[in-house]
Amino acid sequence: MKVSSFLIALLTLFLASHPAAQIDLKAIQKNIVPVQLATKTDDKGLQQWDEYHQNCPACKTKKILECGNCKHLEEPKLCPECKTTRKAPCHYCAGTGKLADPLKIAPCPGCQGHSVFICHMCANTGRIKIAGGGKKGVKCNVCKGNGGRACTVCSGNRQIQSLFKGKVGSTDLKKLRKTRSAIDKLIKDVVKFSAVGQSRIDRKKFAALFKKAKPHLPMTKKFLAQVDQLSKALDQPRFKGNDRTQMASMDRVRRYLLHYLLHQNQVLDACIKRAEFNAQAVKPGK
Questions:
Q1: Statement: residue 3 has pLDDT above 60
Q2: By the 8 A CB rule, do 196 and 202 touch?
Q3: Can you name the residues that pair with 105 across neighbouring β-strands?
Q4: Total Cβ atoms within 10 A of residue 87
Q5: Which of 7, 57, 108, 274 is deepest in the core (most CB within 10 A)?
Q6: Per residue, what are the HEC states of 126-184?
Q7: In this predicted model, what pLDDT tens digit does every residue of 29-56 receive, in sequence order?
Q8: Cα 79 to Cα 66: distance, rounded to the nearest angstrom
């Protein structure tokens, strides 16, 4: 059944009075395992990084968690992550039972450690209902009937290299401070960003937020490429009018990105603190 022009106008009015979801930074921060990086003092009085060992507090070394994509469903028929078993690799530790060294590894901003991006068009069912599609509908051509798309930012590995290609722990103080400032600005801009449900406009405006942060974030190219793929897949002739779907997808993109940025800020803070200590320790007269 085709949507009438009246209903489209009504939907447009609804969207105008209901902007994209507000981002709760505190809630995202609570969902991040605090970064704890220990140091030891060498014979020159300088702080050096100590070995990193931390069991995963989320899965308690069991390596698996209840699948967040389908745990709310009575009988999940499709899940690209857990294959309807309701159990998936822990997205905090990538199913290893131990947290990776934050100086080398970061949670993926493209999937937040889930390895896939759940499809908003079919709501993780793999099928959509359209005119002439029958009761079961037709295969969702956004996710190709899989219920989601494999993350291309981490290639399904759930994690990526930390800042400066995993060398953030040895980066000089000036670069650390510049990167911290750039990420702070990006966080503010991402929180303020509000999708309007028009993919071409949203993609362009969202990509523009990265202008100053791009040199500091090597993941930017792959991340924005995935955002484009997700958005363009939803922007097809048969799906016109799905403004809310576009907005919901962009909101998830923003939350995943902010999770990554806030985590990396914690890493930067630890690195800056160590670098400042060592800068003071080597001053003449010390």
A1: no
A2: yes
A3: 161
A4: 16
A5: 108
A6: CEECCCCCCCCCEECCCCCCCCEEECCCCCCCCEEECHHHHCHHHCCHHHHHHHHHHHH
A7: 999 999 999 999 999 999 999 999 999 9
A8: 12
Dihedral of the alpha carbons of 81, 85, 91, 95, in degrees to the nearest 10? -110
Phi and psi at residue 33, in whole multiples of 5°?
-70, 120
Average pLDDT, the chain: 87
The answer to whether 185 touches 213, Cβ cutoff 8 Å, is yes
DSSP-H helix ranges across 67-143: none
Asked if 93 and 33 count as a contact pair (C-beta separation under 8 A), the reply is no
List beta partners, residue 39.
Answer: 49
Q: State both tokens at 34.
A: 């605090």
Is the alpha carbon torsion for 209, 215, 219, 224 positive or negative?
positive
The burial of 64, by beta-carbon neighbours within 10 Å (0-12 exposed, 13-18 middle, 19 or more buried), is given as middle
Q: Which two tokens stand for residue 274?
A: 């160590």
Residue 239 gets which letter from DSSP? G
Structural tokens at position 162: 């930390």
Tell me the three-class secondary structure of 179-230, residue by residue. HHHHHHHHHHHHHHCCCCCCHHHHHHHHHHCCCCCHHHCCCHHHHHHHHHHH
The string of pLDDT tens digits covering residues 194-240 is 988 888 899 999 999 999 999 999 999 999 999 998 888 877 655 55
Query: What pLDDT does residue 139 have?
Result: 83
Place of tokens 């160590």: 274
Angle of helix 199-208 relative to helix 243-281, nearest 10 degrees, comes to: 10
